[in-house]
Amino acid sequence: MNNINFQTDITRVSSENPYKQVYEVSKENSKALLAEIMEYNPDDITIEEEEIGVIVERIYQEGGSRNV
User: Fold this and answer.
1) Alpha-carbon span 65 to 57, nearest angstrom
2) What's this model's pTM, rounded to 2 decimal places?
């Protein structure tokens, strides 16, 4: 999947090598990105959601930095 220009807004590519690519995308854009990826007939695909504890921690950190 190297050098593919997806139409979907990807937050970032967090890992890329010839055998594995990891994309981070908002939940709202995940369906569109998955549809685009499936056009390339991948051998394997995994979809994971970020753990709620990580999300809550990030919200508290971002909120704390704005109040300084």
Assistant:
1) 12
2) 0.61
> Token pair 């991948």 is at which residue?
42
- Closest Cα to residue 6, out of 40, 43, 48? 40
Walk along the chain (68 residues) and give the pLDDT tens digit of each residue.
445 677 777 777 877 788 888 888 888 888 998 998 899 898 899 998 888 888 888 888 888 665 54
Separation CA 28–CA 60 (nearest Å): 22
23, 31 Cβ separation under 8 angstroms: no
- What's the CA gap between 9 and 25, in Å, rounded? 7
Q: Which two tokens stand for residue 9?
A: 């807004």
